[in-house]
Specification:
By secondary structure, the protein is α+β, with helices and mostly antiparallel strands. The protein has 15 helices and six strands. The model has no long low-confidence stretch (mean pLDDT about 90).
């Protein structure tokens, strides 16, 4: 028998659920792609990326055949680029095995897939009885049932998952998971929830006790890091130097101009502020132009206090720069300097 809470959620969803491109699809590729894109991304932004990916690579086999650079380029601007790398790696695994994995455990083993994503895919694409617990679900359950166990603790995660499993209708798991997501996103929002027209208001603990703003409880506070970047856009004739960022830091696999990082801001220089989840970066870009021959390149290198540019930099034609996936911050700096516009004018 369906729990009264769940029956109410499903009835609300039937009237208020969002119409999204991947909704109603049982294609595991479409469901998986949408879930990976929507990790750490608002639906309003993620929808356009989903549509572009599906238009470019309509099947998992086509995505698997793409290069990582092509995937990163289409992902550009969405952030959390490890998702794109894992997406590509998982696509290659799926293509190699010949079919999409159809059990929770097998889905969970794919790169970039955690407990929530595996449950969402298993329930929506294959109708399996798994409850997907994300931030929306934590919020709705903690408020309605008055659960003060911190959601960022092992005990909290187990408690909320167990409750979600109990409430999830086995034969409607996919629908219920989507209903909970939408209810948290539309009705029981983080701030200014719509309590006055909520169908659960009579049974909601937080509304009755006046604890809406204090639930859910979260303990950990991540320390923020501040960094200072100076990019040097070096122009030699119609060539410029870029490198691909490696592992162990932000933006792995993306390309950038010559970078010097310092532990303090540059005095008297206007900077762009770029906020990431755990970091704030202040950056500016300096343009440097030199003679046409690459033999002259030790000269700009010396101006940067290095004898030559490191081996991981490569020289490319400027008009090819837009073909490389760069961090959003670099894209903003290049546009601020009107470099893309100038290159197009010179080429034209």
């Amino acid at each position: 028998m369906t729990h009264p809470f769940s029956s109410t959620i499903l009835a609300w969803y039937a009237q208020n659920g969002r119409q999204l491109p991947w909704r109603g699809s049982s294609d595991p590729y479409a469901v998986w792609l949408s879930e990976i894109i929507l990790q750490q991304t608002r639906i309003a932004q993620g929808t356009d990326y989903y549509l572009r990916f599906m238009a470019t690579w309509p099947t998992v086999e086509q995505l698997a055949a793409a290069t990582q650079d092509e995937v990163l380029r289409l992902w550009q601007g969405l952030g959390y680029y490890s998702r794109a790398r894992h997406l590509h790696e998982a696509a290659q695994i799926i293509a190699a095995r010949g079919s999409f994995p159809d059990t929770y455990d097998a889905i969970r083993r794919l790169p970039g897939v955690g407990d929530y994503t595996a449950a969402a895919i298993a329930s929506m694409a294959f109708g399996l009885p798994h409850a997907a617990v994300d931030g929306n679900v934590y919020r709705v359950l903690s408020r309605h049932f008055g659960i003060a166990t911190p959601i960022d603790t092992t005990a909290g995660k187990h408690e909320f998952q167990a409750l979600a499993n109990e409430l999830c209708p086995p034969h409607e798991a996919g629908t219920w998971n989507q209903a909970m997501m939408d209810f948290g996103a539309i009705q029981c929002t983080p701030t200014s929830p719509r309590c006055t027209d909520c169908p659960l208001q009579e049974s909601c603990f937080a509304l009755r006790e006046g604890s809406i703003d204090s639930l859910p409880v979260k303990l950990k506070k991540v320390k923020q890091r501040t960094r200072y970047f100076t990019y040097y856009y070096i122009r030699c004739g119609h060539k410029t130097a870029i490198r691909q960022r490696g592992a162990g830091d932000i933006w792995q696999g993306l390309w950038e101009p010559v970078l010097l990082e310092t532990d303090h801001p540059t005095p008297g220089v206007a900077t762009l502020k770029h906020v990431l989840t755990h970091q704030t970066i202040f950056a500016h870009m300096v343009e440097m132009s030199f003679p046409r021959t690459q033999e002259s390149m030790p000269q700009p290198a010396r101006l940067l206090d290095i004898e030559t540019l490191p081996n991981d930099y490569r020289w490319i034609d400027e008009h090819e720069l837009e073909q490389y996936a760069v961090p959003r911050l670099v894209q903003r700096l290049l546009k601020e300097k009107r470099i893309f516009k100038r290159v197009k004018q010179e080429k034209g």
